[in-house]
Amino acid sequence: MTHFIKRGLILSCIAGLALAGQNAIASTPDQTYNLTILHTNDNHGRFWPNRHGEYGMAARAALIQGIRDEVASNGGHTLLLSGGDINTGVPESDLQDAEPDFKGMNYMSYDAMALGNHEFDNPMSVLRQQYEWARFPFLSANILNKDTGMPLFKSHEMFNLDGLKVAVVGFTTEDTIRIGNPEFLGGVEIQSPVEVAKELIPELAANSDLVVAITHMGHYRFGDHGGNAAGDVTLAKAVEGLDVIVGGHSQTPTFSPDVQNNTLIVQAKEWGKYVGRLDLQVRNGAISVINYELIPVNLKKKVKINGEKVRVFIDKEIIADETLQAILEPYQNQGQEQLTQVIGNADEVFIGAREQVRTRETNLGNLIALAQMARVQADVGIMNSGGIRADMPAGDITYKDVLTVQPFANTVAYVDLSGAELMSYLEAAANKAAGSGAFAQFAGVKITMTGDNMTSAAVAGKAVEPTQTYRVAVNAYMASGGDGYPRLSDHANFVNSGFVDAEVLKDYISNHSPLKTADYAAKGDVTRN
Ligand SMILES: [Zn+2]
C-alpha cells in the first residue's frame, strides 16, 4: 500500500500517515525513497536469551538481517537505532561492563544509540570504554561535558542514503540527574531536552529530508508525565519539524504508534523482546508511513496441551545467528563464573529463612531495606519479607549468595510522599500480618502501633510532620500493589530507579564489608501495644 499525501494531513490510521515534513527537500526531485527504521530500547544487559529461550541478541541479529536483506532487495535503506539503556539489569552483563551487549550491537551494525540514564550507573571510565567498543555513535544533544559545554559524545549524526538525508539526534531524560549515580555524574551537565530540541530541530530540519530523534525520555500518554521528567509526547508537541521519535525509558510497547503534532512516536518495550519496524516512503519532501509493527523475538506464551501448561512461540521461531551466538557464549560463561567470586563477608549469618523473616524483624531484612534506601537516597526503606528467600551465609559472600537471597530481579523504586501520605502508608505496612510474605521489614523509621492503629512514627529520630516530604524506597512489586500494599506506582512522584535489588544489595555488601550483624540487629522498628 503506497500513499503520497500532502504534508500536514493526518489520517486516522497509521499506514498512509504523513509526518511533520517541515524539512528542506535535500533529496533528488521526483525520486521515491524507501526507508525502514528498525529499533530497540532498554536492552538492560539482555544479550543472552532467558531460560525459556526468549529474546537474546543472536535471534535479534537473525531477524534484523532478514529484514535488511528484504528491504535492500526492494532498493530500500535501513537504519537500526537504539533508544538507550544498554546497561544494568543482568549480573552476567553488569559484571563485564556490558561488553557482550556492545559487541552484539556492533555485530548487528547499529547505526546510532541514544544515551540512557543507566549509561551513567558506572564510573565515566566505563562509559568511555563502552564508547571505544562501540562502532556506532552515542547520541545526546542535552548531556553536556561540564568543562567544555559541548555534548558529552555527539548531539546528532547525519546519514546520506543515496541522496536521502536523514538527521538522527539523541535526547536523554532530565531525570538522569536524580536517578543516576550522583558520584558518576559530576562531570556532566544535563539540560532540558525540550529546550535544546527547540533550538536544534529546526536547524536539522532545514538540512535534511527526515529528522528522527532517538530518545531516552519515556512515553507518557497525553504527555502526563507525573513525577517523571518530560517525555516524548511533550517533546513532539513542543517542536516543529520532528518526524519520528524512537523512544525508550518507559519500556512501552507501541503496538499502535502515538502521533502527536505530526510526529510519530514509537518504542519497543524492553530487553530486545521486540524489534520495531517502521517502513517510510519519502518523495519530494513528503514522508508517508507505509507500515509499523513490533516483531516479537522468540517470545512465548503458556498454553495448556493435554492438561499440561507448556510454553509456545507467539509468532514463528527465529533461528539464532550462529556466529553471534558463538561470539556471545564465552561472555555468558565468563559471567556465570564471576557470580561465584567473593564480593564481601560477614561475621555471622544474616537471617532470611522464611519462618524467621516473615514473622519478625531480622538483620537481613534491615540490611536489604537499608541498602535500597541508601541507593535512592530515601528517608525510609520498606521490604516485603516474601522477597527475601534465604539466609546469607557467615564468612565469604558471593554474588550467587545474593541472588539466592533476592532471585526475582525486582527493581528498586521510590516515591516522595507528604508526611500525611507516609503515615497512612506506614500504617498499612505495619499491619501486614506476621507469617505472610507481605510482612514488612523497615529501615529509617520507628513506629508505634496500638492494635491496628499507628499511634506514632519517627523518621531519623523525629516525629513525622504531615506537611514535610519524605522519600520512601520500596521494590517495584510492592509499588504496583503486590502483597496488598497500597499502590504507589501511579503516584505523581513515583520513580522506578531501574536498579535491580540483588545488584543493590551486592553493591552495599561490597562497600560495607566486613559486615557485622550487630550493626543490623533487630532494634524494635515496630513497637506493638
Ligand atoms: Zn531509562
Describe the protein's topology:
Layout: E1 32-40, H1 57-73, E2 77-82, H2 91-94, H3 99-107, E3 112-114, H4 124-133, E4 138-139, E5 143-145, E6 156-161, E7 164-172, H5 176-179, E8 188-190, H6 193-205, E9 210-216, H7 232-238, E10 244-246, E11 258-260, E12 263-266, E13 274-283, E14 286-296, E15 300-305, E16 308-313, H8 322-338, E17 342-346, H9 354-357, H10 363-375, E18 380-384, E19 395-398, H11 399-405, E20 411-418, H12 419-430, E21 440-443, E22 445-450, E23 453-459, E24 462-463, E25 469-475, H13 476-479, E26 494-500, H14 501-512, E27 526-528
Parallel strand pairs: 1-2, 2-3, 3-4, 7-9, 9-10, 10-12, 18-25, 22-27
Antiparallel strand pairs: 1-13, 5-8, 6-7, 11-12, 13-14, 15-16, 17-19, 18-21, 20-25, 20-26, 22-23, 23-24
Helix pairs in contact: 3-8, 10-14, 11-14
The structure holds zinc ion.
Zinc ion (ZN) binds at residues 85, 116-118, 216, 249, 498.
How does this model look, in words?
The protein is an alpha/beta fold. It folds into two domains: about 300 residues, 4-Layer Sandwich (Purple Acid Phosphatase, chain A, domain 2), CATH 3.60.21; about 190 residues, 5'-nucleotidase,  domain 2, CATH 3.90.780.10. Helices cover about 25% and strands about 30% of the residues. The chain is built from 14 helices and 27 strands. The strands form seven sheets. Strands 4-3-2-1-13-14 form a six-stranded mixed β-sheet, covered by helices on one side. It has a six-stranded mixed β-sheet with strand order 6-7-9-10-12-11, covered by helices on one side. Helix 4 links the parallel strand 3 and strand 4. Helix 3 packs antiparallel against helix 8, helix 10 crosses helix 14 and helix 11 crosses helix 14. The site of zinc ion has 7 residues, from loops.
